[in-house]
Design goal:
Glutaredoxin; single chain; 2 domains; about 35% helix; about 20% strand; alpha+beta
């Protein structure tokens, strides 16, 4: 169903025009267009935020929350965020810089908010450190394995410089084992086990593994713990995993690893090395 909304969004890209550039205008226009889809029973849409594009005079980016009820044998409710761009005459789903090849969508994504930096997510450093680092990662993602351990080893050396906040973001479709693995890791964190996240990246495990006992054994061996199935199913564990997922959704994190430095997404993943 997400694909259906994306396909509709693409059709709007081809030739949709507006004659104003306010949040109300964007909401009215998109609501009208989406409502014409016969598969959508109802739709609730609002602009969460907007900001001007510094590189394109007169253009603004709009973060739009969409909640749609889809017709069918079973009523389905689809919720997602989308980013739209408008200059008051044209509205489009994507803009790309012809010189760099970068999409403006990444530039328009929401920043990290202060409320997301919780003590439960702080794994290294002092909360009052000079810089806040937020890491969204899947422990079985090969790109994460290549980046996260080395970055954490470096950051943990200077607790006054870096406050490191870690958010579990298992990519279930390609690494189903990660779903259980991050819950086991969270259970170990709740028990006060040190360096859980760092040690977790040394686990040797088939990303497609679904047997909980196998995943537990691999984790306990790598981290030196004795976490049980009961431990990973507590309300506290579930609440933290849900919180991490909500933060990722709120700021539209889609892939791993995704890094934020002082609230801003760092697409290079290297800026932390250059700050004082």
């Amino acid at each position: 169903m997400l694909l259906m909304l994306k396909l509709l969004a693409t059709s709007l890209l081809l030739g949709s025009f507006l004659y104003a550039n306010t949040s109300d205008d964007i909401e009215d226009f998109l609501s009208s267009k989406f409502s014409k889809n016969p598969q959508i029973q109802s739709i609730d849409l609002d602009v969460e935020s907007s900001k001007p594009l510094e590189q394109l005079k007169g253009w603004r980016a709009y973060v739009v929350n969409i909640k749609a009820v889809i017709k069918g044998k079973r009523k389905q409710v689809i919720e997602q965020k989308m980013i739209w761009f408008s200059n008051g005459s044209v509205i489009t789903k994507d803009l790309t810089d012809m010189h760099s090849g970068d999409s403006f969508t990444d530039l328009a994504k929401p920043d990290m908010k202060a409320k997301y930096y919780t003590k439960e997510n702080l794994i290294y450093g002092n909360a009052n450190a000079r810089h806040k680092i937020a890491i969204f990662s899947d422990p079985l993602c090969p790109f994460c394995k290549a980046f996260v351990p080395e970055a954490l080893q470096e950051m943990k050396k200077d607790p006054k410089k870096y406050a490191v906040y870690y958010f579990h973001l298992p990519l279930e479709r390609i690494h189903p084992a990660s779903v259980a693995l991050v819950r086991i890791a969270q259970a170990a964190q709740n028990k006060g086990v040190k360096d859980v996240i760092l040690k977790m990246y040394s686990i040797k495990l088939n990303p497609r593994e679904k047997n909980i006992k196998v995943i537990l054994a691999a984790f306990n061996k790598a981290v030196g713990t004795n976490i049980t199935e009961h431990d990973m199913q507590t309300k506290k564990v579930q609440a933290q995993i849900k919180f991490d997922a909500k933060v990722a959704n709120d700021i539209m994190v889609a892939g791993t690893p995704t890094i934020y430095l002082d609230g801003k997404m760092d697409r290079t993943k290297k800026k932390y090395k250059k700050v004082n």
